[in-house]
Design goal:
Distance between the termini: 35 Å
Strand content: 25-35%
Largest sheet: 4 strands, mixed
Length: about 170
């Protein structure tokens, strides 16, 4: 990431995430990223778990604090600031896909490709550091369920003493 922006004369503060990608450069489940969590140095291009940084937002451009600007202005600044170092679909540094208006096509694609979710943001929203607001929503596409699994063991020795062995696993 630092190498991608090394030619810039002023610093950027980006909001984004590191994601694991498959051989074709498509993001995959967070589970694939976990083996890299404690890795301290970048590896060669032959890394068994390649990653990409996906920028969502630009919070600071040089000395300019952009958090008070509406999303559509920050997005335009992000695209200008990242010209030449990012791509939308491939490469180690990317800008998130951005759809204004009806998101049905992106939603259909996300479901077909098995994305974990989408984020919906209001175009006029400002960036609120350290807090959540109704101006953005996380739309989960992967269905999960939390449950409790209980296992009991009945043996004649335990039953003779009026005992049952059991374990409860919370997921």
């Amino acid at each position: 990431l630092a190498m991608a922006f090394a030619a810039r004369r002023s610093p950027l503060l980006l909001d984004g995430e590191i994601v694991a990608v498959d051989r074709d450069g498509r993001p995959v489940s967070f589970v694939h990223l976990q083996p890299r969590i404690h890795q301290r140095r970048a590896r060669s291009g032959n890394d068994p778990v390649p990653v990409a940084f996906i920028a969502f937002d630009l919070l600071r451009d040089g000395n300019d604090d952009l958090r008070g600007l509406p999303l559509h202005q920050r997005r335009a600044r992000l695209e200008r600031a990242c010209t030449g170092v990012t791509s939308e679909a491939s490469g180690p540094v990317r800008i998130s896909e951005h759809v204004v208006g009806s998101p049905e096509r992106l939603d259909s694609r996300a479901r077909a490709e098995g994305w974990e979710g989408l984020i919906a943001k209001r175009l006029e929203s400002t960036y609120l550091s350290g807090t959540r607001s109704d101006d953005w929503r996380k739309l989960k596409l992967v269905k999960t369920q939390s449950c409790i699994v209980r296992s009991e063991e009945h043996t004649s020795e335990l039953q003779s003493r009026g005992l049952i062995s059991y374990a409860v696993f919370c997921l």
